[in-house]
Design goal:
By secondary structure, the protein is an all-alpha fold. The protein folds into two domains: 180 residues, Growth Hormone, Chain: A; 194 residues, Growth Hormone, Chain: A. 79% of the residues lie in helices and 0% in strands. The longest helix is centred in the middle third of the chain and has 30 residues.
Length: 407
């Protein structure tokens, strides 16, 4: 038997991890594409702004419910069913969006897209979490990079295709990509890791201090996500920014997260996810506060890059904390609970932000957001005194991970 150490690429699980990253990125590609087509949908089908808002919100709500209530089934031996069924739902949603022209049928298509994304994401994370406990942080960071890249490229790809081939063409192209991903997923092992057989999984997860801390940190992170989606374009336009510059800033904000997320995951595993998240959220809250105070467009853009750097560490730190908080057999449920919490926080903050910006001004809005982030950070850190030990030297065997509730 050979005693030579594994090559670095094999040790980090890169060859095995890449197919799952591509699969997850493809789902994100379709999920984010609709944002670039909202104006075209209004002009082509006559949807009102209110109907477009309902269509957008339906996707978020369906994804939230899917992650909250379906993710646990991946832990019970149905991960492959979740992935295959989610991709089928996404494909059906894309085909429906391409060939229907009525509000209710398009709403159903958007619901199918949200269902597909919400089913696939936690199941894929479960596979990645149980693939290599030793490389948990960097693997989750790489997966997050592909998710973000897909979400950013989706609107760009959809806009280019729609410009040359019409508004229906992007949905057809993305349906084909989903079918290719579905065919590829049938060749991937999706049922690794121990299975969960217990009940009341969510209650047991919420009893773990590290899980509660991760959820508080997740809320703090997604408060700014919802606020950005609601008012960032308006804020920059009020500062004199053109449309192309607004679009560029939204893309540039995500670029550091794509490249730095693996580093953030590795650091979170070695130093402790809540230690990393506490520093990055503190920096992000200061940036958020400054958006309401700084004069001039270019100062705002400079601070937004610092904010993006901080978020590059917060997002993988939250996912690593959720993975470390629960047993290996509850990996999908933990990631689903984290994702659902983030979507709920983003939705609520986005709902409030537009009203607050209009009636109270940007200073009050961003000061309030910064205060809420700080409160969540304090509550999260108060939930844990000591984190689970870093797993840089832990065994690859999932049984070696500390049990739930351990600190």
């Amino acid at each position: 038997m050979s005693t030579q150490p594994a090559a670095p690429a094999e040790r980090a699980g890169v060859p095995r991890l890449l197919p799952y990253c591509l699969l997850s990125g493809t789902v994100s590609l379709g999920y984010g594409s609709i944002y670039a087509l909202l104006a075209d949908l209004r002009d082509t089908y006559g949807f009102t702004e209110a109907e477009l808002g309902v269509i957008t919100a339906a996707g978020f709500l369906t994804g939230l419910l899917a992650q909250l209530f379906l993710a646990r089934h991946a832990d019970r031996g149905h991960a492959a069913t979740m992935v295959h069924g989610g991709l089928l739902a996404a494909t059906a949603g894309m085909i429906g969006a391409a060939f229907v022209g009525h509000f209710w049928t398009f709403l159903l298509s958007r619901i199918l897209l949200g269902l597909g994304s919400g089913a696939v994401a936690p199941a894929i994370r479960r596979v990645v979490v149980n693939q290599s406990r030793e490389d948990l942080g960097v693997n989750l960071g790489k997966l997050a990079s592909f998710d973000l890249a897909g979400f950013v490229l989706g609107p760009v790809l959809a806009a280019v295709i729609a410009q040359f081939l019409g508004v229906r063409a992007p949905f057809i192209a993305l349906a084909v990509l989903d079918l290719i991903a579905l065919a590829a997923s049938t060749r991937l092992p999706l049922s690794g890791g121990p299975q969960s057989s217990g009940s009341q999984v969510m209650r047991r997860l919420l009893a773990v201090p590290t899980m509660r801390a991760a959820l508080f940190a997740c809320v703090a992170f997604y408060i700014t996500v919802g606020t950005f989606e609601a008012v960032w374009a308006v804020l920059l336009r009020d500062q004199g920014a053109s449309t192309w510059l607004i679009g560029l800033t939204l893309s540039l904000f995500t670029v550091p997260m794509i490249f730095l997320a693996p580093l953030g995951g590795r650091l979170s595993q070695r130093r402790g996810p809540m230690r990393v998240a506490s520093l990055s959220i503190a920096l992000a809250s200061l940036c958020t506060l400054s958006y309401g105070l700084l004069p001039g467009l270019w100062l705002l853009l400079f601070v937004s890059l610092i904010h993006a750097f901080a978020d590059s560490f917060t997002m993988p730190a939250n996912q690593v904390a959720a993975a470390m908080a629960g047993r290996a057999e509850n990996a999908s449920a933990a990631q689903g609970l984290l994702g659902a919490t983030g979507l709920a926080a983003a939705g609520l903050s986005g709902l409030v932000s537009g009203y607050a910006y209009e009636h109270f001004g940007r200073a009050a809005l961003f000061a309030g957001a910064a205060v809420l982030m700080t409160v969540c950070l304090v509550l999260g850190m108060a939930s844990v005194r000591n984190e689970p030990r870093p797993m840089a030297n832990a065994s690859r065997d999932p049984a070696s991970v500390q049990p739930e509730g351990a600190t």
